[in-house]
Write a structure and sequence with these properties.
Blueprint lengths: L1 H9 L4 H19 L6 E4 L2 H10 L6 E5 L4 H13 L3 E5 L7 H8 L4 E7 L11 H10 L3 E5 L18 E5 L11 E5 L42 H14 L4 H21 L3 E2 L8 E5 L4 E3 L1 H6 L5 E2 L5 E4 L6 H13 L1 E3 L2
Helix pairs in contact: 2-7, 3-4, 8-10
């Protein structure tokens, strides 16, 4: 990517090579996730993929989605319901209930589509997508799974994934620049027109002007016009991740999360996750205290203070036991009395 930026600055680039990077990254993504390239569309955002999903919901059916779902999944549902006969069932859960159980309980005979993220960063629960799909498919409902927070770290193989549509934005755990996103589905089961038709969704994308209207085969008909630098970076990131064993990454990062939370509990922090643990951990500080983000930053710990005052950290394959121990100790030292 550095070379591409240098070529851009010097004016010595070939835009056709840049343009080809999106399709090369799409093929690399298919290889990384072990699905046919024909099942993959290159897009620019998670919300774009979610919009495709909601348009697949049967007419007048109910779309099930968690009340606290990430807005790039939730808002396409709400926008769709505002202009169609679709209904929304917003899933609320009690403070001690898992998101998995609450969503499963909300699925019924009128459900046409379930929209769910495998992990949300507001609590770090690793949602049981397999269990949700099993219930939804009993009623003939489709499932859209957002894997933005899991693909690349606790999940890589999508060849047997039970969801009907899967999406991931690459700028999280896939280590890509922002603007590279993928939608995965069996194209024979997606019977809608392109959401945003363009020269990249056409059967002949090398033609730039005039008709007649055409659509690319398979999922490529949902391709978006690429922001070139994002896809150049995505191709490099996928090449790196291809060297990492997916099972090793999952077991390693979950072990780091276990190690981290054990130390955090000893310091009086409380885990906010009520379900299965993921590589993302969100904890509430001891009563009467808050975490000072400036102290974290000064100690070179990059973490997030959530809207409710929780401390969120996440572990990738490239972290180790020393990182987990250091993050926990710094969090303890960053506690200050609430005012």
């Amino acid at each position: 990517m550095r070379r591409a930026l240098d070529d851009w600055e010097s004016g010595s680039y070939d835009w056709l090579q840049w343009d080809a990077s999106a399709d090369a990254a799409r093929i690399a993504f298919a290889g990384y996730t072990q699905v046919p390239p024909e099942w993959v569309a290159s897009q620019t955002s998670l919300s774009e993929a979610a919009t495709v999903a909601v348009r697949c919901a049967p007419e007048a059916s109910t779309i099930v989605v968690a009340e606290d779902e990430f807005r790039s999944v939730l808002f396409p549902v709400m926008a769709h319901a505002a202009t169609t006969s679709a209904r929304i069932k917003l899933v609320k859960r009690s403070a001690d209930a898992s998101r998995t159980a609450a969503i499963m309980d909300a699925i019924g005979p009128d459900t046409g589509l379930v929209m769910v993220s495998e992990v949300l960063t507001n609590d770090g629960e690793l949602v049981d997508i397999d269990a949700i799909c099993a219930v939804a498919h009993q009623y003939g409902a489709l499932v859209f799974a957002n894997l933005t927070q899991t693909l690349g770290v606790v999940r890589s193989d999508l060849s047997r994934h039970p969801a009907d549509l899967v999406a991931a934005h690459g700028y999280k755990w896939l280590l890509c620049p922002r603007g590279a996103s993928w939608l995965v589905a069996d194209p024979s089961r997606i019977n809608i027109a392109p959401t945003v038709a363009s020269w990249k969704s056409a059967a002949d994308p090398e033609r730039f002007f005039g008709g007649p209207y055409s659509e690319a085969g398979a999922m490529a008909r949902f391709n978006s016009s690429p922001a070139w630098m994002s896809w150049i970076g995505a191709l490099a990131a996928l090449s790196l991740l291809a060297e990492v064993d997916g099972d090793d990454s999952r077991s390693h990062t979950l072990r780091l999360a276990e190690q981290y939370i054990a130390v955090m509990r000893s310091h009086g922090f409380r885990e906010l996750n009520c379900g299965a643990r993921s590589h993302i951990v969100v904890t509430a500080p001891p009563s009467g205290y808050r975490v000072d983000p400036a102290r974290l930053y000064d100690a070179r710990v990059r973490a997030t203070i959530t809207a409710n005052g929780g401390l969120r950290v996440g572990f990738h394959y490239f972290n180790d036991e020393a990182d987990a121990a250091y993050a926990a100790e710094v969090a303890h030292k960053a506690l200050v009395v609430s005012t």
